[in-house]
Amino acid sequence: MSESEAASVEMEKSKAHIITAIIEYVPKAVVSQTIIKKTTGNVTVSSLDAGEELGAKISPFDTYIQIIDGAAEIVINTKKYMLKLGEGIVIPAHSTHCINANEQFKMISTVIKSGYED
User: How far apart are CA 1 and CA 114, in angstroms?
Assistant: First the structure.
């Protein structure tokens, strides 16, 4: 797997955009663009070329994944979910998860960092 390219600069506010056009596919790469980044959470759009993956990790926060192009395999605590265009899933906090690109796809990832004070 190649190194992920990431742009950490937020998108321009109060300017309309086409979400699927924010990033392009790059051969043999994972590319990410930050939409919003705050201490309470962030929104990122990513593209993964076929054969790439976001390896197993555990996040202390809930993460919502929505597929905006193509289809992806999301594995949460060893259970596989096949998500296609327009579908989404919440990855629960403290769950082991990975994301596999059996075909190229783009997704929006939303991490919510507040609400864990309880």
Answer: 32
Residue range 28-54: mean pLDDT, rounded: 95
Superfamily of domain 5-112: Jelly Rolls (2.60.120.10)
CA-to-CA distance for 56 and 17, rounded, in angstroms? 31
Residue located via tokens 């059996």: 102
User: What is the residue extent of each domain of the chain?
Assistant: 5-112
Q: For residue 4, what are the β-bridge partners?
A: none
Residues 6+ apart with CB under 8 A from 77: 95, 96, 97
Average pLDDT taken over every residue of the chain: 90
Of the candidates 66, 77, 49, which has an alpha carbon nearest to the alpha carbon of residue 110?
A: 66
